[in-house]
Amino acid sequence: MLQRKYTIRREVLKNFMATAKTITMDDLLKEENIQQITSGEVVNGSILSVRKHEVLVDLGPHGIGVVPRREIGFNQKLVEGDEVTASVIETEMENGYCLLSLRKAAKDRGWDEITRLIDAGEIVEVTAYDANRGGLLIELEGVRGFLPVSQLSAEHYPRVGSSDKDEILQRLNGLVNKIIKVRILDADRKGNKLIFSEKEAIKDGLAERFEKLKVGDTVKGVVTGVVDYGAFVNVEGIEGLIHISEISWERVNNPADYIKVGDNVEAKIIAIDKERLSLSLKQLQEDPWLKEVEQFKAGADIEGTVTRITPFGAFVQISPAVEALVHVSELGDGEGADPEKVFKLNERKNFRVLDIDKDNRKISLSLKKSKK
């Protein structure tokens, strides 16, 4: 109906102009107190209809505007009758409508709000609409921005092997459509650049938690990632690392054999730096080495399994928790002996115990002095 009224009005004006050549269209519009809209102008209107690929907006005396789907903001829900603010892209298309953008209008207003948020240092809640291997794609107040992986908190950081890019993307996709608290790290209106940081949003709270922790404390956390050199743990928002050497008193070749993502663990703090805790699982357990080493005496002959061969000798497992070293000088052929020729991995041999150093957890063996 409005479009028909608008068309009739234009036809009346055209007919009038045909009989009064000295009066222009602009003159008539001025008489009706109607100002022509211009490209780039911000206008207000109400939604007439919401279609699959476009939205029609009633602009009153300015006629009808059309908003293509691509010009509607992310996750913006529109219904008939809603009042909206739009930017004019084209004043008149072939169908007589003007082309509008809700996204551009929101973006212009959004930059003003973003400037205010930066000045106030406020924490805001955002929702990612997509992800790539570098981070999360976010729209705030009509402005699109980015949350890099490096700026995610310990809780959300995808701790996986550096070569497993598919798993990184899978973890990040799990954060899409979830609310995340962030601070604006960097904003450039002219360059249309907006960077978010979750780490900055939780920084103040983490500082308070760090102050309450000390070396020797026992903490609880959730494993967030398992890598070749250990496991990462989220301790109430603080990132902790359990190095491979601190997982078990046994020799650990693969941390994934002992710990998995999602495991709830209890660990001891063995060091604290500015952003991370160094944790230990094994130090909350009795050291079996100290118990098992009691069965060995210097001068005794024992049997063991070769576990590692190096240029300076070989390591031998003499009990489940005790490993000893046979130095190259104790192989029987002097310093020139080649451990690779003397031993084979997983081979069992007889040795003599030369020395036991409990303080440094070291046992020295000899192959040449074994009686067997």
Which descriptors apply to this entry?
372 residues, alpha+beta, OB fold (Dihydrolipoamide Acetyltransferase, E2P), 4 domains, 8 helices
Q: What does it look like?
A:
There is one protein chain. The protein starts with a helix and ends in a 6-residue tail after the last strand. The strands form 4 sheets. A 5-stranded mixed beta barrel has the order 1-2-3-5-4. Strands 8-7-6-9-10 form a 5-stranded antiparallel sheet. Strands 11-12-13-15-14 form a 5-stranded mixed barrel. Strand 1 and strand 2 form a beta hairpin. The chain is elongated and about 105 Å long. It has helices spanning 2-19, 25-31, 102-120, 165-173, 198-201, 203-212, 288-292, 339-342; strands at residues 42-50, 54-58, 64-68, 83-90, 98-101, 124-132, 135-140, 143-148, 179-188, 193-197, 218-227, 230-235, 238-243, 264-272, 276-280, 301-310, 313-319, 322-327, 348-357, 362-366. It has 4 domains: 2-102, OB fold (Dihydrolipoamide Acetyltransferase, E2P) (Beta Barrel), CATH 2.40.50.140; 121-201, Beta Barrel (OB fold (Dihydrolipoamide Acetyltransferase, E2P)), CATH 2.40.50; 209-284, OB fold (Dihydrolipoamide Acetyltransferase, E2P), CATH 2.40.50; 295-366, Nucleic acid-binding proteins (OB fold (Dihydrolipoamide Acetyltransferase, E2P)). It is built from 8 helices and 20 strands. The protein has 372 residues and is α+β, with helices and mostly antiparallel strands.
